[in-house]
Amino acid sequence: MRGDSTSKRKDIRAIGNLLGNSAAHYALYGEEQREIGTYTSQAEEIAGKRSWDKMDLEDIKKIAATRARSEIRRRMPLLGLDERDEDRYAEKVEEFIGSFMSKIVKAPSKAKQGHP
Question: What is the pTM of this model?
Answer without folding.
Answer: 0.83
